[in-house]
Amino acid sequence: MNENISLKDEQFATLKAMAEGIAALFFPVVEVAIHNVKSGKIAWLANNISKRSIGDDAGLEELSLHDLESMTGPYEKLNWDGKKVRSVSIRANVEGETEYIFCINFSTSLLEDAKNALEMFLSVNRLQPQPVQLFKHDWQEKINTFLHQWLNENNTSLSTLSRQQKKELVTELYRQGAFTVRNSADYIANVLSMGRATVYKHLKEIKN
């Protein structure tokens, strides 16, 4: 008998350690609650964001354990402060029986606030068209536009360009007239992480 109690205690201690670890890793937005199936009470709370207490009713009377999957969710519910929480519930078996429900509750309010702030900050409705006269001769932007269009069409990026691709880009930029502007060769060499001499070498080969 003592061995059975000891084993249950050991397994519950493991569940508590897992709860504390998950809550610590995702602090402060994740709470982990362990519900005792037999008593219908909350057996443990890690990073309490729901303002409940250990020993409170777990609300399991509405839950049919026979129909409960090994993992349920994620599902959404409302926290005490009116903010949304996404949760998953996991059956935790002790000695072959479902003794506990292990619930991970993730408060999405911080992410939603950040999303709303980004949407407000990046709102295109607040943007005005570029002043035509001011940027009429903005050759750097024209080079940037062509460059990234080429990168998208070739499914690559500046950081992964091969030597051959850089040479192809220099050739295409030359055909677009990018090198007719003073200092454009230096700018292109800098953007493509190439030596200035290498750029001029490619240009010489193109012209020949």
TrEMBL record:
**Per the database record, which ranges form the Transcriptional regulator DauR-like HTH domain?**
143-204
Residues that span the membrane, as ranges: none
> Which intervals hold domain YheO-like?
14-116
PANTHER family from the UniProt entry: TRANSCRIPTIONAL REGULATOR DAUR (PTHR35568:SF1)
Q: What is this protein called?
A: PAS domain-containing protein
Q: Which organism is it from?
A: Buttiauxella agrestis ATCC 33320
